[in-house]
Amino acid sequence: MENHDPQNPLASFTWDDGAYSTIRRIVVYEKEWICSIQIEYDGNGESIMSETHGENEGSMSEVVFEYPDEFLVSISGYYGSIRNWGVDRIVIRSLTFESNGRYYGPFGIQEGKYFKSPGTEGKIIGFHGISDPYLNAIGVHVQTVQKLGIQPEPPKPLNMGQYGGKGGNPWKETFETIKRVRIYHGLWIDSFQIQYEEVDEMGTLVWTEIYGGEGGFLATVDLEFDEYFISVEGYYSDLQKWGMDATVIRSLTLKTNQNTYGPFGIEDGTKFSFPFKGLKLVGFHGRSGVYLDAIGLYLRPTPINGTEKFSLGECGGEGGDPWDENFTTIRKLVINHGQWIDSIQMEYEDENGEVVLSEKHGGNGGSESEVVLNFPDEHIVTIRGYYDNLRDWGLDTIVIQSLTVETNTTSYGPFGVENGTKFSFPSDGVKVVGIHGRSGLYLDAIGLMAVPVED
């Protein structure tokens, strides 16, 4: 059991929910502090709702975990006095919840003294605390890694590939928690350096080597404790204008759940984007010499619905309506395309072994092309392509411009026009078992579901 009690004397208002199998849902009422918390636990498959700890004032927020695969691993926040509001109490001012897949919050106001529980890796299975009339203190019951049977060594991350040139020397860095990034830049990205937190009891901060040369201006990206990356994008091009026969990274933009940092460098050349919605950034790799020649990512997936299946994000625009097709083995893709991808349709074997022809996701324009796989031995390992805005055609909407389908034996395409922003999904060690996206008159966006396979 771990307890966070900010020296509050209200022992008569203590509460303890006990320990359960896992946590399904948390309800938080907040204003300038945390007014109340209520937890829906799971007791061996039975939903158990706790009492409301505090008073239901302010605005209400819900944290709903993807039961049973997602679980709570840490809570953090701030506590302090609220004398400024005429109440002489020390209360929890803010809460952030971290699961094995993502962060929720912060709820409340991030002012006062910071805390985080638990101090060691584990699974939170219960809460206890003090509340009168607000949430004055909070603690957790923890199931340790050893009890969970979880191996301390994390699974092999997914390689998102690289964009850029082939010069310089290869490098790679993997981590669990990234803290800072240093980027030296001018007309291109001169160098790249990462600070991360080592997986040890001390949480030691480590700077990697500087990957690249010594030129450029320094820009530093400092992440807050509950801030994490959701996108890395940029441009690459050759330096022939400057009399150098090299292709390098010209620009980088780093996006988090809270901010956009950059662009650093010059946005010129071929634009690239790494999609990793629903995945955790756990490493960078690339090539460097005098400049940053290339950059790539390592990502860790979150399993879905008790299986090894995981999402590989979604690329493209936000128009159209969402759709989702899941399968065990795909037999055929039908792609309608011209200046962009008009539609996509799939023939596949579902989980019951039935052959299914999906709806046509998109409009009826374009020429039709078929990708017929060598059933049952051939399977899709990735789909890559381009997306862009159709302003040149008088339409202010982002759609998929081009698709290339890669299998374990060959490559099909490109279909459409390779123009706009490049995107790709991991191809090493995965098998595609689902395709999802958005569509209306065109194919607006596309994403993949996958399972790991042996290389």
Structural class: mainly beta
Radius of gyration: 25 Å
Give the overall form.
Answer: globular
Termini distance?
42 Å
Mean pLDDT: 85
Count of strand segments: 39
- The named CATH superfamily of the largest domain: Jacalin-like lectin domain
Strand order of the largest sheet: 23-22-21-24-37-34-35-36
Tell me the number of helical segments per DSSP (H or I, 4 or more residues long).
Answer: 1
How many domains, in number, for the residues? 3
Strand content: over 45%
Runs with pLDDT <50, length 5+?
A: 1-12, 145-153
The largest pleated sheet is described as: 8 strands, mixed
Fraction of residues in helices? under 10%
- Architecture (CATH level 2) name of the largest domain: Aligned Prism
CATH topology group of the largest domain: Vitelline Membrane Outer Layer Protein I, subunit A
- CATH class category name of the largest domain: Mainly Beta
Task: Give an overview of the whole structure.
The protein is built from 1 helix and 39 strands. The protein has 455 residues and is an all-beta fold. It has 3 domains: 147 residues, Aligned Prism (Vitelline Membrane Outer Layer Protein I, subunit A), CATH 2.100.10.30; 143 residues, Vitelline Membrane Outer Layer Protein I, subunit A (Aligned Prism), CATH 2.100.10; 143 residues, Vitelline Membrane Outer Layer Protein I, subunit A (Aligned Prism). The strands form 8 sheets. The protein has an 8-stranded mixed beta sheet, with no helix packed on it. A hairpin with a 3-residue loop joins strand 29 and strand 30. The longest helix has 4 residues.
